[in-house]
């Protein structure tokens, strides 16, 4: 896609049109999974719908194998679609849903394809089940199998996991990645969840206000966010100008005085740092435990409120809210912005 613009008419007389996508250019390699990541209203779903042919372009071009598809009808683009609610056919059983896009093929070939995809998405033998008997996660697995069945040249996924609870989303994100890789499917994947994007995608395009802010692999984005806006969205939680940073942080992370130091959760570790270390001190605001792993929410003078890792500290040895703790800087975790 090159310089794609999607614009919606004004909602009331005298108002200006809304530009949802503003000059975005992206390439997706064959077999690649590319995530469009950004907050609600950033234009990612509008861009996906434009690629599908569901939204007209106000500018730019969309091409596949060098040829423009802008004037190609939706049903002739050979692009698959999967939405967050699955949109399964309730009058068909699971096998009938998956086979929907295989009409006209030999019956034996269809049955084999359905069976293979059910195995792939973790629902072996479920072809005869009614849609009404499926859980939310199972419905999305069936929807994925249906989208993959005709082997689309591009699969478009619009927040396919967002309606599920977090633990189920995390499991299905891994399964989604596995299924896309196993089928060699080229995919454009929309999500507002950075963890989800990092699990599923080969590369991630971060968007805000209709524009592309940064494009890269998950590892590259995390190691080197383009600016504070990108870093904040990825989950970095504290930002301090180097010249104003506490001495222990300046000593641990050498940076130009006018650079910004960005700290993700876990960039500070404690308790357990010795008095001889270059350390910071902070006051515990709360102790949190997720899946048996405790973290501290700590207010650190000169930095702000941060999430502190607590390696090798037993639950009984954790400080309480109101306690002062000594913290060590994990130099490798801190990113220098604006070099």
Task: Give the arrangement of secondary structure elements.
Blueprint: E1 2-8, E2 18-24, E3 33-37, H1 44-52, E4 59-61, E5 63-64, E6 67-68, E7 79-83, H2 94-98, H3 107-120, H4 136-148, E8 154-158, H5 166-183, E9 187-191, H6 194-200, E10 203-208, E11 211-216, H7 218-223, H8 228-234, E12 238-241, H9 247-252, E13 260-263, E14 268-269, E15 279-290, E16 293-300, E17 304-309, E18 324-329, E19 335-337
Parallel strand pairs: 3-9, 3-10, 7-8, 8-9, 14-17
Antiparallel strand pairs: 1-2, 1-4, 5-6, 10-11, 12-13, 13-19, 14-18, 15-16, 15-18, 16-17
Description of the molecule:
This protein has helices spanning 44-52, 94-98, 107-120, 136-148, 166-183, 194-200, 218-223, 228-234, 247-252, and strands spanning 2-8, 18-24, 33-37, 59-61, 63-64, 67-68, 79-83, 154-158, 187-191, 203-208, 211-216, 238-241, 260-263, 268-269, 279-290, 293-300, 304-309, 324-329, 335-337. With 339 residues, it is an alpha/beta fold. The chain folds into 2 domains: 2-230, P-loop containing nucleotide triphosphate hydrolases (Rossmann fold), CATH 3.40.50.300; 236-337, Beta Barrel (OB fold (Dihydrolipoamide Acetyltransferase, E2P)), CATH 2.40.50.140. It has a 6-stranded mixed beta sheet with strand order 7-8-9-3-10-11, sandwiched between helices. Strands 14-17-16-15-18 form a 5-stranded mixed β-barrel. Strands 2-1-4 form a 3-stranded antiparallel beta sheet, covered by helices on one side. Helix 4 runs parallel beside helix 5 (166-183). The longest helix has 18 residues, at 166-183. It is globular, with a radius of gyration of 24 Å. 36% of the residues are buried.
């Amino acid at each position: 896609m090159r310089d794609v613009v999607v614009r919606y008419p004004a909602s009331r007389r005298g108002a200006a049109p809304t530009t949802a996508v503003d000059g975005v250019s992206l390439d997706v390699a064959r077999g690649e999974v590319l995530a469009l990541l950004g907050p609600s209203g950033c234009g990612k779903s509008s861009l996906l719908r434009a690629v599908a042919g569901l939204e007209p372009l106000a500018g730019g071009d969309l091409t596949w194998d060098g040829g423009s598809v802008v004037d190609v009808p939706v049903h002739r683009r050979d692009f698959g679609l999967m939405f967050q609610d699955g949109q399964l056919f309730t009058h068909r059983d699971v096998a009938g849903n998956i086979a929907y896009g295989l009409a006209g093929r030999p019956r034996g070939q269809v049955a084999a394809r359905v069976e293979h995809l059910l195995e792939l998405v973790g629902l072996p033998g479920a072809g005869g089940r009614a849609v009404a008997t499926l859980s939310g996660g199972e419905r999305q697995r069936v929807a994925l199998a249906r989208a993959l069945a005709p082997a689309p040249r591009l699969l478009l996924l619009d927040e396919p996991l967002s309606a599920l609870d977090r633990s189920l989303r995390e499991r299905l994100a891994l399964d989604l990645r596995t299924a896309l890789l196993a089928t060699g499917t080229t995919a454009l994947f929309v999500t507002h969840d950075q963890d989800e994007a990092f699990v599923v995608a080969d590369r991630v395009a971060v968007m805000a206000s209709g524009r592309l802010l940064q494009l890269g692999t998950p590892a590259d984005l995390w190691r080197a966010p383009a600016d504070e806006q990108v870093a904040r969205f990825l989950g970095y939680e504290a930002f301090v100008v180097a010249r104003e940073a506490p001495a222990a942080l300046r000593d641990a992370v050498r940076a130009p005085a006018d650079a910004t130091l960005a700290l993700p959760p876990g960039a500070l570790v404690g308790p357990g740092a010795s008095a001889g270390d270059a350390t910071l001190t902070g006051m515990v605001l709360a102790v949190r435990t997720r899946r048996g792993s405790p973290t501290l929410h700590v207010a650190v003078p000169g930095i702000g409120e941060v999430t502190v890792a607590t390696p090798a500290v037993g639950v009984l040895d954790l400080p309480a809210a109101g306690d002062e703790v000594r913290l060590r800087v994990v130099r490798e975790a801190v990113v220098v912005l604006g070099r």
